[in-house]
UniProtKB/TrEMBL annotation:
Residues of the full protein shown: 1 to 483 of 734
Recorded superkingdom: Bacteria
Pathway membership: Glycan biosynthesis; trehalose biosynthesis
GO biological process assignments: trehalose biosynthetic process
Name listed for the protein in its UniProt record: Alpha,alpha-trehalose-phosphate synthase
Record's keyword annotation contains Nucleus: no
Gene Ontology terms for molecular function: alpha,alpha-trehalose-phosphate synthase (UDP-forming) activity; trehalose-phosphatase activity
GO terms for cellular component: cytosol
Coiled-coil boundaries: none
UniProt enzyme class: transferase
Subunit note: Homotetramer.
EC number, as in UniProt: 2.4.1.15
Record's keyword terms, sorted: Glycosyltransferase, Transferase
Length: 483
């Protein structure tokens, strides 16, 4: 029976070694949830890196790890520390990530990074080819693996290959600055179907293909010499039911069952009933516009001093890629900004920003979403932004206001949010005021429309739509080739 193989940089599991025993726990991230049915049904297999480098794995644990991984219907790709340096921290996160998010001045074009990226994509290809048979369907994820569709196609033309990019695809003028632009496009074109979050990313990709490789691209298909490649947009959704169910349970919880954070938040609300909470959650990344957001909040406090002691920004920044220099600099900048603003505006009974630099358990994430009157999400660029969608899904009584950057893919589906240009501190400050003063009726009306859309196009629908489309384009292509 043909099977579906999912390939991503990381496997959807957490490996740990305790008392010489190896354990693998399934992870609960959005991608893992969305692809659960694709993975579990149809005899599926997930291929990716386990999270432990070859140097971190003792020889005596190797077989146990392999077995644990296999038990989760997964197969591991063996990567060394030097692979991770060059392919992941290097080419993926110091070349592609900044460039695809229009941070051109951060992009490093290093031959060594590129060589490592090619080597690791070949390692992934080897594991895929060991496991794939003709007739199988392979779904490759994200910017770390852009050469993989081409490498698989070259060896096994009779498999069906889909690729989904989770970050923006930049305009041709930006993309063409990459020295290895042709190889990257050819790698991607090994797929039968290429998916993007928005129509704009899809359009940018088509224009790069026709201008760099000269293949005719019309509407949403590209005619290669021997095949047709389909390109389309599939905006990724969230596990709506899970977020809304957790939020409902949160509201119904008795005092004793509450988390420490929830108790604190409730206590804060009882002490200062007219004070409002503004929430900010992201990985600590320069694309997320965190520094600008803090400056905009400062500008808001200057421009509207009547809000002193009446509002608090609760900011969660999750540590990320902390060995890449730009991330270290950003961390320092944010620490300083938070210190400066708290020092400047605080009173004996009020701290304007509560700042957490850490990862939090899922339950705390829900506590924050359900307790906040406003979510302030202002990325400079973001492929989609799931936090915006999760916030709206947890507002079970439909109150709450989402302020969202126009530069996030999610803005295309969330027109009822207060959309702002993240580069204008003044617009953000005014949007904060508008959000804090928005009548409940208006809040509920906006959230009602967004919720019904998010509920319908959830992450499972996203995954099945992509898979159905992949089957359909494969059938069409076979028809064209045999005609
Ligand atoms: P990210 O850049 O990581 O994803 P985002 O879409 O916001 O950004 O997803 C973050 C996820 O992490 C959310 O699901 C959120 O719930 C979770 N999360 C955040 N803080 C957490 C915490 N402290 N503990 C546990 N979980 C936490 C990339 C792209 C995005 C795109 C996604 C999906 O950059 O643009 O939306 O992939 O395609």
């Amino acid at each position: 029976m043909p099977k579906t193989i999912i390939v991503s940089n990381r496997l959807p599991l957490q490996l740990s070694i305790e008392n010489d025993q190896v354990h693998a726990e399934p992870s609960v991230g959005g991608l893992a949830t969305g692809l659960k049915s694709v993975h579990r049904d149809s005899n599926g297999l997930w291929i990716g890196w386990t999270g432990l480098t070859a140097e971190e794995i003792d020889v005596q644990h190797e077989d146990a790890i392999k077995k644990e991984v296999q038990d989760q219907q997964c197969a591991g790709v063996r990567l060394t520390e030097s692979d991770m340096e060059g392919y992941y921290y290097g080419f993926s996160n110091r070349t592609i990530w900044p460039l695809f998010h229009y941070f051109m001045e951060y992009a490093e074009f290093e031959d060594d990074f590129w060589e490592s990226y090619k080597t690791v994509n070949e390692k992934f290809a080897k594991v895929v080819l060991e496991n794939a048979e003709d007739g199988d369907t392979i779904w490759v994820h994200d910017y770390q693996l852009m050469l993989l569709p081409g490498l698989i196609r070259a060896q096994r033309p009779e498999v069906s290959i889909g690729f989904f990019l989770h970050i923006p695809f930049p305009s041709y003028e930006v993309f063409r600055t990459i020295p290895w632009r042709e190889e990257i496009l050819k790698g991607l074109l090994g797929a039968d179907l290429l998916g993007f979050h928005t129509y704009d990313y899809e359009r940018h990709f088509l224009s790069s293909v026709s201008r760099i490789l000269g293949f005719p691209a019309s509407f949403n298909s590209i005619s290669l010499t021997d095949r047709v490649v389909t390109v389309d947009s599939f905006p990724m959704g969230i596990d709506y039911e899970k977020f809304s169910a957790f939020a409902k349970a949160n509201h119904e919880q008795t005092d004793t069952a509450q988390s420490e954070l929830q108790r604190r938040l409730q206590h804060h609300q009882e002490e200062t009933p007219d004070a409002k909470l503004i929430l900010s959650i992201d990985r600590l990344d320069y694309t997320k516009g965190i520094a600008n957001r803090i400056r905009a909040y400062e500008h808001f406090l200057e421009k509207y001093p009547q809000y002193s002691e009446k509002v608090r920004l609760i900011m969660l920044a999750v540590p990320s890629r902390s060995n890449v220099p730009q991330y270290q600099l950003l961390k320092k900048e944010i620490d300083e900004l938070v210190g400066r603003i708290n020092g400047r505006f605080a009173t004996v009974s009020w701290t304007p920003i509560w700042y957490f630099y850490r990862s939090m358990p899922f339950q705390n994430l829900i506590d924050l979403y359900t307790s906040s009157d406003v979510a302030l999400i202002t990325p400079i660029r973001d492929g989609m932004n799931l936090v915006a969608k999760e916030y709206v899904a947890t507002r079970t009584d439909r109150t709450g206001v989402l302020i969202l950057s126009e530069m996030a893919g999610a803005a295309k589906e969330m027109n009822e949010a207060l959309l702002i240009n993240p580069n204008s501190l003044d617009l953000i400050a005014d949007a904060i005021k508008k959000a804090l003063e928005m009548p409940e009726r208006d809040q509920k009306k906006r959230n009602k429309y967004m919720q019904s859309r998010l509920k319908r196009y959830n992450v499972e629908k996203w995954a099945t739509d992509f898979m159905n489309r992949l089957q359909a384009v494969r059938v069409d292509d076979e028809y064209v080739r045999t005609k």
